Amino acid sequence: MFEVREDEPMYALLKAVETDQKNIYGNDIDLVKNSGQPKGVSLRINGDEGVGDNPDRYKQHGFHFTADNCIGCHACEAACSEKNDLPPHLSFRSVGYVEGGTYPNFTRMNISMACNHCDDPVCLKGCPTAAYTKHPEYGAVLQDPDICFGCGYCTWVCPYNAPQLDPVEGHVQKCNMCVDRLEVGLKPACVAACVGNALDFGVIETTPENREQKKTSIPGFPDPSISKPNIRFQQTKSMPREFTRTDSEPIKYHRKDSNGEYKPVVDKNKIKNRQWNLAKLSSRENPLVIFTLTTQAAIGAFLIVFLGGLFGIESLQILTESNVYVPFLFSLIGLQAFVLFLSTQHLGKPMRFYRGFNNLRHSPLSREALGVAMFLNGLIAVAVLSSLDHGFLNWIEAGAIFNIVSSIVPWLESSMLESYMPVATKTFAFFTVISGLLGLYYMVSIYRIKARPFWDHWQVATSFFGTMLSLGGILIGIVCIPLALISGISLAGLLNNLAGVIAFGLLLEAIGHIFHAHDLQKNSGEGSASYHLLTSQYGNTYITRNIVLGLSIIAIFILASVQLPEAWQGLILWSVLAGIILLTSLVSRALFYVMVIPTTMPGAFFWKNKGFEEHARETGLAKLPQVGVLPCSH
Question: Taking the model in full, what pTM does it have?
């Protein structure tokens, strides 16, 4: 257990006080009263089996921050980092600030923020490895780095930037509420170190001494309805109508006269003229760009071929009955297996990839991984059965495969196996289609994040399903047409049939972009700020993408309706158009990742500031450990 000093000051000690039954969200403050969970369970801190004797041990605790008192000394940061032995590039607690007013009435308000141990922890629900647990002891949301495989999804869904992805260690860590100190009656280290008496801690909804407010928000604090955070605020001094951030995010906070609350709006002073910034399209999410596009293409290609053949589209029936079909299936398998491997390289600890299925109950990431894995296994089954059906594996049929099957089902004869082959193939094909669509549905769900308003729009679905159709159709052409030419099989009608599917997919994506842009312009906050950056910092790239997308839709329809005199002419034109569509999709998906602005807490000029981090890497400052910026972007 944590060792208590003999001269521990009174302000560092927890005090037992009367508490409310319910918190402001209507939830029980006593976390085991109606839950049936046992009391007296040890938290096994540092392997110690002891149990603390705090009378409020099973009540939800939280921080209280008095903005009026914070002097921005960063003592809370230093105490937290020292206690948790953190490297310079990580900080469980951060002090940022916002500024407002004009001389001489210029105001700077500091904000000290760590994990808020929420009532509805979105990090817990999002984590695919189930590394998070909300404990009935103090209501602490604890994360186990030894379970984490470093996907960073919890850092996406948390609106407060509490989970910290450490690219050096390859896993996430976060504030643990100093439960070791709580067990022996001490407040967290950051609270005990606070010079200005701005931070306090106790059972939630209790008002500390010499305090009169316990508000749930403050300028710069994200919408508390996202996760129901357990932090309360006091700010009584008169404040200006607007606050600006000192970091590079183009956000400021405007006070509404109706209720006095501050809401995020776009800070147009930070919006620059239109630029290209093609180099900045590359990001840590590059493996996800390739993975999402390729997976959607593979799902779409199989879906188009299978359903086209099933519903009697002649060119697709010819394809499924030809010798091209089996190599096509194995090409999809190889492609999907490669991008699945590539996606694991996005993890901080790739060898722990199998833990991605640990949280199927809550995490859309776990469900997407399962759906894509089932899609790949279904493809393998369909490919093997189709190989037998098309005669590719006749030499094996009487050997190893039949011996394996007959050992499992002794009464099954070779002739029976042959008669059941078409039914089994079609059954696995249906399974593969359903698995692929489920995987794609949960892929969309991954990005519908309230903490990232730019993504939280139905346009994600039109983009992903549109790409499934457009790139799926292109993938069929890339794989099947060369194989058909080599095999001497006529697939004259295939390009025309694929044209409609590709055009519909592009049109679906374009419609989503139009409504997405309209809704972002109409709204305010981080989503609108993302749109303004999109049309300025990446404005030339964005406009070019839109023009090329529109022209591609028109060109597809023209080529589908024009009969060219030579087949090779059509093949060349289709190849050029396919290359343009692929490049456009790559740029679109890269913009999708780099443009998102999260609803995170304000940073400082040199700390938690994306702009300063880029400057430090460009100038070499990042080579100094004390700067707190890693040399390589992560």
Answer: 0.90
